[in-house]
């Protein structure tokens, strides 16, 4: 089955990824993958690191003449900033000045302290390099490969920003969101579906910058064309919504997940649940509303899947918080390093990747096949079977 591994540090030579179980004969558009990497680096409120890097993949195996081979796919994304960190990140033992450059001052909200305690480290550089959100570059690339697979099956995944702090898209506008708005969303620096909110969202980011602070918000990922029957209700770890929630929560700075669009309105049950109808002409069941977000009983129901991620304000602040030196135990004000002010637009792109990966895995579990043609055939037969029920 489809799975992937990533390796690499934030300021190391690069990020290495391997995808196993990817079906053969999927057309590979490298420019499409690189465009998703570029989307991850965009968004209003991003920091100086995004001006240094220009992420592109180098495929080492698993793809030949523009098509996947069915063998493991290996690729590299180089870190251009490595040249400035080659001594600090050297794999050689006892590099000159290494002891003086140890990181012993944990930053509140980061993995610095807990990582040092867990792995019994005296240099928190060993923690922060891997716990950095730089790792999500690999996941976006893996997700782009999975998008290419799902595209062959008529499944499309996109995202948009729902809120930045208190600036929020209205429920009425959310009901109008569709894949037709993708060009409009991608032309917005905030990746918002409502262009009238762009300036207000930017102003919220600017106010945070003036205060030396950071802000969070919410993004939404949607998947269209998903067939009913992905996931299952029979075991806790096979529930599709549970797997999507875990995938979204694995993203740096994520603190909450919501499946469906009706939870925030706190309705009665009679107002929340989606009534079921049947179209005799197409011989398909359908719903006129989609408050369940396309998932019932841990299983996709054929409607558009809707998943939201709640992003905390990132913890690297120009206005430092208090902490304690790991070595001396003395209090200090946390050091500021170059960082973002708002990552919500970029987090939505990463959320797309994680939703795409989970759906690609669920598709393979349901329909099998060593080639994309087999999966297409099995999916077509399945849809025909459902119409005959």
Written account of the structure:
The protein has 389 residues and is of the alpha+beta class. It has one domain: Chorismate synthase AroC (Chorismate synthase, AroC fold), CATH 3.60.150. It is built from twelve helices and 17 strands. The strands form six sheets. Strands 8-7-9-15-10 form a five-stranded antiparallel beta sheet. Strands 1-2-6-3 form a four-stranded antiparallel beta sheet, with helices on one face. Strands 4-5 form a two-stranded antiparallel ribbon. It is globular.
Topology:
Elements: E1 3-7, E2 14-20, H1 30-40, H2 49-52, E3 57-61, E4 63-64, E5 67-68, E6 73-78, H3 112-119, H4 125-131, H5 136-151, E7 156-164, E8 167-168, H6 171-174, H7 182-186, H8 198-210, E9 217-224, H9 240-249, E10 254-259, H10 269-272, E11 276-279, E12 284-287, E13 295-296, E14 299-300, E15 305-311, E16 322-324, E17 331-333, H11 344-367, H12 372-387
Antiparallel strand pairs: 1-2, 2-6, 3-6, 4-5, 7-8, 7-9, 9-15, 10-15, 11-12, 13-14, 16-17
Helix pairs in contact: 1-5, 3-4, 5-11, 9-11
């Amino acid at each position: 089955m489809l799975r992937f591994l990533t390796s690499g540090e934030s300021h190391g030579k690069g990020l290495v990824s391997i995808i196993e179980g990817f079906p053969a004969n999927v057309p590979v558009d490298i420019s499409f993958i690189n465009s998703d990497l570029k989307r991850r680096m965009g968004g209003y409120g991003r920091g100086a690191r995004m001006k240094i890097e220009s992420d592109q993949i180098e495929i080492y195996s698993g793809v030949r003449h523009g098509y996947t081979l069915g063998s493991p796919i290996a690729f590299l994304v180089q870190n251009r900033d490595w040249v400035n960190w080659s001594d600090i990140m050297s794999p050689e033992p006892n590099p000159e000045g290494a002891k003086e450059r140890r990181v012993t001052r944990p930053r509140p909200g980061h993995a610095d302290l807990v990582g040092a305690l867990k792995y019994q480290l005296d240099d928190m550089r060993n923690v922060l390099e891997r716990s950095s959100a730089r790792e999500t570059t690999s996941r976006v690339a893996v997700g782009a490969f999975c998008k290419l697979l799902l595209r062959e099956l008529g499944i499309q995944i996109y995202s948009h920003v729902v809120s930045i702090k208190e600036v929020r898209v209205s429920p009425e506008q959310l009901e109008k969101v569709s894949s037709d708005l993708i060009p409009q969303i991608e032309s917005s620096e905030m990746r918002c579906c409502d262009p009238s909110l762009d300036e207000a969202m930017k102003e919220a980011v600017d106010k945070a910058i003036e205060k030396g602070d950071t802000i969070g918000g919410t993004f939404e990922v949607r998947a269209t064309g998903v067939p009913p029957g992905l996931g299952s209700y029979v075991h806790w770890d096979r529930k599709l919504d549970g797997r999507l929630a875990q995938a979204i929560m694995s993203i740096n700075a994520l603190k909450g997940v919501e499946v469906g669009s009706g939870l925030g309105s706190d309705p009665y049950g009679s107002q929340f649940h989606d009534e079921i109808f049947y179209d005799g002409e197409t011989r398909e069941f359908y719903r006129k509303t989609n408050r369940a977000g396309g998932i019932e009983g841990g299983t996709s129901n054929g409607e558009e899947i809707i998943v939201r991620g709640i992003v905390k304000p990132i913890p690297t602040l120009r206005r430092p918080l208090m902490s304690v030196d790991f070595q001396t135990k003395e209090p200090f004000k946390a050091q500021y390093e170059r960082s973002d002010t708002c990552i919500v637009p970029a987090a939505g792109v990463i959320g797309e990747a994680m939703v795409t990966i989970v759906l690609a895995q669920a598709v393979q579990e349901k329909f099998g096949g060593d080639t994309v043609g087999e999966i297409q055939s099995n999916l077509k037969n399945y849809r025909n079977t459902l119409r005959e029920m």
